[in-house]
Amino acid sequence: MQRTYLSDTNSDYKCLENYLSNGEFGKLPDKESHILQHDGLNNAAILEFVRQGNPEFVSLDSNNEVLNGINDLLDAHVLPTRYDAPTSFHLLDSLVATLRSTVERLGIDTKNFPLHATVPTGMINAMVVDLPCSSTPFLLFDSQLFIFCNLISKIYAQCLFPAAGTNFVSADTIKTTIANDPGISLRLTGLLDALVRNGRPGTSKPFPVDSRTVRLAHDLCRGMELFIVAHEFGHVYAGHLDTPNSSFHMSEASSEIPSSHRKEYEADYAALIFTTHALEHEHWDFWQINSSIKLFFSTLDLINRYADYITNGPNRKFTSKESETHPSNENRKKSIDIAIGELEIPAVQRNLASHHGILIEEATQLLWSSITKDKGTLGRNDPCSCGSGLKYKKCCSA
Predict the structure, then answer these.
(1) pTM attached to this predicted model
(2) Radius of gyration of the chain (CA)
């Protein structure tokens, strides 16, 4: 089937494609990998790469349903621009469709709903942009972002899965799981190392899927991805690109908060509302929704903490810091907790959400301790603990 591009008939998408081709978004290191997916002749090679990198996963896919599904996504013939990745765009398209239907159910006008596309910036990138040559804002997401959400969700799902013979997970269960399976920490180290050193989590070493935790990993990933997409739309809805929406405000707003920080808080608040409405419509319990949002903020801190660790070593105490454009992750979490306190949530669900939120934090701390505890004892010529296969002196100690 002939592949078609919206940029050939839609002036807004043509505008975006021109910006990409003119280098306005940087060097686009993943451009070639995206374009390879456009040629159906490469499908067999791409699927073989998936098979080789995920042998345990493929063994579970006895009827080739997932692999056939990937092949169908690669064949998806309508894409926004020549820079989109077919598989990632299909995922983004599904998330945006969920968000848009949620916004409509809430009675919000979607006539000027932003357009969306994937961009090959090679980083875990999410942004809303208003290009001068376009009549509509764009929600833009890099494929690496979705790869990261997928991989980090698998790692946390392995930690948060209930112990054998029980229906619950506890801090002790998490601690035992991490201690008994050193592969979990190695996978996390490899993922963070790839992200911090070159911005591309997709270059980390593939690891097998745990068949017991597939569902939990899927839910954590979907909730986190939807919150991220809803956050970027929140900037549009709150009027951050033009005139502020007078009907949208933070109940805890303060004149002392910098304007750029206020916008992030407001986008987070909007994302909480939209994500909660969307997933409750799909019959999720609130504790599940809350867990995926808490995971998002925990991973932001993990990334920053690992970057600080690589630069300054293990002895400096890490603190969550604000930037010129963003509040600290710690303050964003506190703001979300305040907003959750204002939602009408049954007491049982609120208590469960609080419990699982604490477990996400506990898992984060235990994982951090696990990935850093042995690094100081490694010799420079020892294999690096991140699983890269390189010597420590040429990897995480570099």
Answers:
(1) 0.86
(2) 21
